[in-house]
Amino acid sequence: MDIVVLAGGLSTERDVSFSTGSNVAEALRELGHRVILLDVFMGYSDKPEDLTGIFGRFKEASASVAAISSEAPDLEAIRKSRKDQSSSFFGPNVVELCRMADIVFMALHGENGEDGRIQAAFDLYGIKYTGTGYLSSAIAMDKDLSKRLFAANGIPTPAGISMEKGNCQWDFAATGLTLPCVVKPCCGGSSIGVSIVRTKEEYQQALKEAFRWEEKVIIENYIQGREFSVGVMDFKALPVIEIAPLQGFYDYKNKYAAGSAVETCPADLPQHITEEMQHYAEEVAKALGLETYARMDFLLDGQGQVYCLEANTLPGMTKVSLLPQEAQAVGMDFGSLCEEIIRISMKKYEHTEHMELEGMTLENIAKACKGTYFGGEQEKQKAIRGAVTDSRQVEEGFLFIPIKGAKADGHDFIPDVFAKGAAAV
């Protein structure tokens, strides 16, 4: 297969994403696939390129990868380093290369990877990709919304509240919670911006740290206990893995610094606790609609109570990441795991050789992409008939997605597509 492994981006987990991407690309190449490792933000080449036959030279077309730093990346410096300085999130030739691939292996983590926006765009482009769809990605990324769905479906999770920066409660007594507690960004990953708070003074500092990364935070009861994770593939749970940090909790440094945590799979647990945790992992996948694969994080307190913390729709995929260790415990090596993820993901497209847009309204598209709809109230409820990026293929009722390419800028053709009956751009 010709495969693009999409990594990088502009989230705080950019470096982690490259680690996942390089490992996946290497494993798939060893199995005979032609794989391009692509930085979704930087793209491939800032000059006009003939992409014909590019999968035949996949190694030279792939991004180079550095080791994971112990600190989160400087995203502003990365933005400034892109040569074309385009306002588009997709770097040069990214969409073109993804459309040429048989499938895109999503190795992105965090914002603009796990939040559903890229998945929504790919659905409109007709690009096949691994992992769950845009809606379930967006729900799982929002810890506040996820926790509400956990509670509605009988899945235990630590009690807590959400708070927005513009309406923040700096007085801890007014939150109704008790110390110790945990303060964390609502949609972040890799434990970036997470603090365990034991005093009122620490609470205010923790809020400042969490708001440094996002406009919305979660404050929840601190559960003293053991940390676990459970992978789910095609709605079936893998063995439970325990994570025991040598110091502190499983934060960014402990996740990616070698030797900083002891990981045991299968976890040493009574059988009924193992089965309970696996059951809840499968229930989370069903409640959030997580197709293909995901990984759920859990805590177990001293009284044997299980708590689900969150769902990860694109979990880490290095050879020593949690999900691959769980797969290894049932006899699936890393390369086989990567191919199995592709196999399950392709099932989504078995009955849709072309992009299905039935019932997809302009309002729905705007929401899925976290954009803003501009137009009449009646028109926003109209279902579009199709979506294209080539102005020559526009038909009446189609959505035209203008792209600035090496040879032409799609925005120049907007008047033409409206003349042909396009519903929107």
Structure description:
The longest helix has 18 residues, at 271-288. The chain is an alpha+beta fold and 425 residues long. The protein has helices spanning 14-30, 58-61, 75-81, 94-100, 117-125, 134-141, 143-152, 200-211, 252-256, 271-288, 322-329, 334-346, 362-368, 414-419, and strands spanning 2-7, 34-39, 103-106, 160-164, 181-185, 195-197, 216-221, 225-233, 236-245, 261-264, 293-301, 306-312, 386-388, 398-400.
Topology (SSEs and partners):
Layout lengths: L1 E6 L6 H17 L3 E6 L18 H4 L13 H7 L12 H7 L2 E4 L10 H9 L8 H8 L1 H10 L7 E5 L16 E5 L9 E3 L2 H12 L4 E6 L3 E9 L2 E10 L6 H5 L4 E4 L6 H18 L4 E9 L4 E7 L9 H8 L4 H13 L15 H7 L17 E3 L9 E3 L13 H6 L6
Parallel strand pairs: 1-2, 1-3, 13-14
Antiparallel strand pairs: 4-7, 5-6, 5-7, 8-9, 8-11, 9-10, 11-12
Helix pairs in contact: 1-12, 5-6
Indicate the overall shape: globular
Which structural class matches the secondary elements? alpha+beta
Helix content: 25-40%
Biggest sheet layout = 5 strands, antiparallel
Largest sheet, order of strands side by side? 10-9-8-11-12
Beta strands, count: 14
**Multimeric state:** single chain
Percentage of residues in strands: 15-25%
Please compute the radius of gyration using only Cα atoms: 22 Å
Q: Give me the strand/helix succession.
A: EHEHHHEHHHEEEHEEEHEHEEHHHEEH
The termini sit apart by 33 Å
Q: Total helix count?
A: 14
> Low-confidence parts lasting 5 or more residues at pLDDT below 50?
250-256, 352-356
Arithmetic mean pLDDT: 87
What's the short story on this structure?
The protein contains 14 helices and 14 strands. Helices cover 31% and strands 19% of the residues. Helix 1 (14-30) crosses helix 12 and helix 5 runs antiparallel to helix 6.
